[in-house]
């Protein structure tokens, strides 16, 4: 291993050590430590004991019966009784629910850390020959700013890791069956994280399309089994889950992207005050100017639709090439986070943009510099520590009394994540179209914006 590769590896290792040690330490802090996994753990336990985890009242009774209710303040218990994960998550969490919490949480935390570190290493391996130090800096910083992903035990840690492992298998054309199973598991755990990544492999054709169909088959088989099992215990799970999602997204709810609803819990106050980018979908910006879901949801979908259409056409028309695949995935990851509800734990999906950044950086010129700048800013702004620092520095915004021009300035201060993600998505989509046009010919593909500087 030469000096540059060793330096890049050490930079990534330093970030990984911070991630593992600090994240593990925070996972034991009360009451937030392991809170996300606790919901999944107790939900699976509820199913095992033939109770309905999608019914908040029944789940609360289960907490009281097991004695766990006294471990949390009311606001945390309220959050723990509102589960909005699909039934497909439970085949992965049920084995942990068979063990006491004192065993289940450390095992989940260790497996999450190992999986995420392995995924980061494999993303670095994809481009280690091109720019190992640049890749090591980007990935190392991302790791060092992912403590909450580990400490909270959110399923995003597993889902993103499995998605990255599948990507490595497909691009390197090794361990294909393992890659199929990883992507199927990622889709089952968090379909809104891995869904568009899977769609790329379906669209691009060839062996990749075969892998996508195999993934879908595995996912459908797993999903049917999970839904049948859950339906036997909780026949009204779908209606109850929709009701829970409505509670979360209502004004003042923990997932409300708007500004008008006054917080109805201390968790909401904490998350929106300390984490200006806790929610990272485009709705959080649109709602600043018109806080009505009947407006900001359709507006977001209509705004993103043309970009997704262009990306779909280019993917269908162009042949598969490794570097072009990097660009395709780097383009779709930001839009994945923008279109629908996502939190900062999901932004670790930006790990998949590093290979594209390095590929463009290797070419040099203004495009390479812009790729590094946008990707670096994206990773910094979505980092856990970065967002806490921003939240402490900027404080609470006064959206209500601000004019439109003031709100535009405030968006950059208080909700910077969607702005950066949109810039990344548009840039990488342009680079993807440009790469495809160079191969296919200008007449075959749609034109995508500016001339390269």
Describe this structure in words.
With 453 residues, the chain is mainly α. The protein has a domain at 275-453. The protein is built from 22 helices and no strands. The protein has helices spanning 3-26, 35-48, 56-66, 74-80, 90-97, 101-127, 132-144, 147-151, 156-172, 176-189, 191-204, 206-233, 237-249, 266-274, 283-289, 293-317, 322-339, 354-363, 365-381, 384-394, 404-414, 416-440. The two termini are 35 Å apart. The model is unreliable at 261-276 and 442-453 (pLDDT under 50).
Short summary:
72% of the residues lie in helices and 0% in strands. It has 453 residues and is mainly α.
Write the layout of secondary structure elements.
Layout: H1 3-26, H2 35-48, H3 56-66, H4 74-80, H5 90-97, H6 101-127, H7 132-144, H8 147-151, H9 156-172, H10 176-189, H11 191-204, H12 206-233, H13 237-249, H14 266-274, H15 283-289, H16 293-317, H17 322-339, H18 354-363, H19 365-381, H20 384-394, H21 404-414, H22 416-440
Keywords:
453 residues; mainly alpha; globular; disordered C terminus
Query: What number is the mean pLDDT?
Result: 86
Low-confidence stretches: 261-276, 442-453
Taking all Cα atoms into account, the compactness measure Rg is 22 Å
Using the alpha-carbon principal axes, give the shape.
globular
| Number of E-type strands | 0
Order of helices and strands: HHHHHHHHHHHHHHHHHHHHHH
Which secondary-structure class do the elements indicate?
mainly alpha
Q: Roughly how many Å apart are the termini?
A: 35 Å
**What is the number of helical segments per DSSP (H or I, 4+ residues)?**
22
How much of the sequence lies in strands comes to under 5%
């Amino acid at each position: 291993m030469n000096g540059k590769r060793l330096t890049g590896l050490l930079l990534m290792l330093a970030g990984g050590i911070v991630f593992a040690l600090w994240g593990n330490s925070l996972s034991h802090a009360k009451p937030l430590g392991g809170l996300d996994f606790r919901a999944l753990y107790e939900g699976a336990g509820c199913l095992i004991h033939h109770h309905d985890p999608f019914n908040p009242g029944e789940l609360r009774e289960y907490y009281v019966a097991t004695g766990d209710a006294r471990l949390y303040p009311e606001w945390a218990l309220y959050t723990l009784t509102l589960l909005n994960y699909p039934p497909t998550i439970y085949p992965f969490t049920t084995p942990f629910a068979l063990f006491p919490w004192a065993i289940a949480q450390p095992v989940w935390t260790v497996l999450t850390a190992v999986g995420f570190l392995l995924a980061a290493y494999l993303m670095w391996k994809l481009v280690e020959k091109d720019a190992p130090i640049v890749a090591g800096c980007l990935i190392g910083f991302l790791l060092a700013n992912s403590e909450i992903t580990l400490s909270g035990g959110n399923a995003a840690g597993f889902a993103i890791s499995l998605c990255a492992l599948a990507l490595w298998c497909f691009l390197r054309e090794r361990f294909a069956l393992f890659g199929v199973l990883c992507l199927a598991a990622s889709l089952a755990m968090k379909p809104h994280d891995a869904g568009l990544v899977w769609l790329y492999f379906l669209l691009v054709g060839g062996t990749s399309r075969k892998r996508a169909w195999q993934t879908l088959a595995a996912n459908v088989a797993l999903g049917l089994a999970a839904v049948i099992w859950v339906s036997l215990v909780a026949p009204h799970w779908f209606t109850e889950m929709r009701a829970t999602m409505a509670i979360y997204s209502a004004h003042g709810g923990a997932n409300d992207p708007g500004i008008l609803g006054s917080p109805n819990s201390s968790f909401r106050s904490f998350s929106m005050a300390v984490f200006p980018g806790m929610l990272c979908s485009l709705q959080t910006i649109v709602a600043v100017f018109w806080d009505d879901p009947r407006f900001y949801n359709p507006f977001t979908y209509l705004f993103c639709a043309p970009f997704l259409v262009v990306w779909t056409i280019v993917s269908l028309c162009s042949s598969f090439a490794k570097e072009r695949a990097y660009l395709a995935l780097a383009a779709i990851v930001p839009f994945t986070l923008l279109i629908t509800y996502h939190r900062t734990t999901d932004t670790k999906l930006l790990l998949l943009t590093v290979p594209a950044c390095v590929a463009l950086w290797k070419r040099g010129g203004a495009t390479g510099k812009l790729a590094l700048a946008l990707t670096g800013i994206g990773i910094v702004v979505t980092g856990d520590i970065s967002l806490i620092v921003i939240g402490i520095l900027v404080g609470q915004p006064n959206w209500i009394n601000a004019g439109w021009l003031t709100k535009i300035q405030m968006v950059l201060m208080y909700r910077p994540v969607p702005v950066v993600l949109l810039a990344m998505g548009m840039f990488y989509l342009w680079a993807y179209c440009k790469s495809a046009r160079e191969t296919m010919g200008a007449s075959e593909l749609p034109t995508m914006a500016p001339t390269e500087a």
